[in-house]
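Let's study a protein:

===
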Amino acid sequence: MQFTAQQIAGLINATIQGNPETVVSSFNNIEAATKGDLTFMGNPKYTEALLKTEASIVLIGKDMVPDSPIKATLLVVEDAYAAFATLLQIYQEMHVQGLKGIEEPAFVSESARLGENIYIGAFTYVNNRSSIGKNTKIYPGCYLGENVTIGENTIIYAGVKIYHDCMIGSNVIIHAGAVIGADGFGFVPDKQGIYKKIPQIGNVIIEDDVEIGANTCIDRATLTATIIRKGTKIDNLVQLAHNVEVGEHTGIAAQAGISGSTHIGKYNMIAGQVGIAGHLETPERFIATAQSGISKVSDIPGQMVGGSPAFAMRDHLKSSAIFRRLPELEKRIAELEKALSERKKD
């Protein structure tokens, strides 16, 4: 597909500097862009790259327009990052809108309820009493168990498995290979130490505007629901255990693991490879830096922690600085002990 600078400017309320009839058909970064590409500049450190770029159109913040002449046509906006994100979203939606109907072979139960303008890819299985809202797209190779509910305008990418009774909201994106609603890790040892399984009869509820990364696993609750509140964004390879509740607009990065019955507050930021023990509750705007191991949490909103076991980030940084000097400090202590011992002999 081809678009002119004039057409693009209308979508993002941009001012054009250059030829409004300049045509682009693809996106690229500012260093690698060539003729026919659209790129953007949202950081002044790329000014030199801007002067050299071969892109046909550059989306740029109004405070970053250079004095030197640019070969490319400029689309000047208030916020280049936000405008570029809007364009990418529009481009993606145009692609998704072309997906309609039920591909063969796919199994859709007669008791399933299907909204208008949906897409169900080949080799997908939709079980009894499941419901799919209008404009939702389910890519090939997915599984929907009994009584699964999916809202409107949701995208379920290839290979996602959603177990029975789980509820997915509207405007949700679930990436390939994610598993929603597998049994929580519930076992109890008997007198001989043999583990007996505790049936997990709850479900998973994912509210609106949530995004879940590839190969992430969200376990069903034992009795009630594991809940992911609206606006939350979860990266790839994340594990959320049974009965976990994640507050609104929280971000959880790759390889984080949250143990059972822990409640994550609103607007939390959980960085990569963070481990959080069970039955904890984090306050609002809590930040756990990468590889933190959290076994205890204060109730201070906005607290940032680091380390394992995790503690206040400022103290963690001080401790890290000392830790790097331990070999030197050990040597100095040994020298002092030796000197003290010799003085005592005298």
